[in-house]
Amino acid sequence: MRDFLNYTLFTIGGDIPVLLIDLITSVLGLTCVFLAGRNSKYNFWVGYLYTFFLFLMFWNKNLYASLLLQPVSLGINILGHYRWTHPKKSEESSRDHTALKVTMLTWPQRGAAVVSVFLMAWLWGWLLSQLGNRWCVGLFPSDPIPYLDACVTVLILVAQFLSALKKWDCWVAWLLVNVTQMMLHISVGHVFMPIVSGLYLINGVVSLWGWYRLYKKKA
User: Fold this and answer.
1) I need a labelling partner for 126 at 20 to 30 A (CA). Which of 25, 34, 43, 63 fits?
2) What's the CA gap between 91 and 109, in Å, rounded?
3) Please, which residues have CB within 8 angstroms of residue 181's CB and are 6 or more apart in sequence?
4) Domain ranges of the chain
């Protein structure tokens, strides 16, 4: 398994490897967010594969917060798939009665989300900083960047959950995720993923406006 995860397609500058797993994950991730931004329910099918390959990639880099996120992400993906295709009567899109319409969080809900992100990221980061250093010494390698890893993890969870409920605010969360993920991937030596995060950022801006128009049309 490690041989597959570390299979190098080529190197940049002679010492920066471009891994096969990075390329596969990049293509799946871009496809998934592109479909989501276009309000397509098929993004969930691609998302199932994307979650699996992300799990392998983070396991290979010892990024445990991001790794442990993937089973949770799978559950949220399943929830979103169901919610998008089985709306309640009051939640139906004006364009398609079998689809969930786009809605927004209230300001109190947004405030609660922000506070939750900070608290959970700090707690998770502290737990990761102890894993491999004080707890389970020798069993797990230490997470190289526990607080940034945890921050990205929590932001992704919030963004995914809001996406599953088809909240316009999810794209604000995704924009924050894209910026922090670029920092995370660069810090551990990923080559393709920082570029992909930049493309995610562009897609997020486009989707933010696209979903706002859907919200106005109750679609």
Assistant:
1) 25
2) 19
3) 152, 193, 197, 200
4) 2-84+109-216
pTM across the whole model: 0.83
What radius of gyration do the chain's Cα atoms show?
18
Which of 89, 115, 111, 93 shows the shortest CA–CA distance to 102? 93
Per DSSP, the three-state class of 151 is helix
- Residues 135 and 37: their CA atoms lie apart, in Å, by 41
Give the C-alpha distances (Å, rounded to integers) separating 109 from 15, 49, 87. 47, 31, 21
Q: Which two three-digit tokens encode residue 183?
A: 């920092």
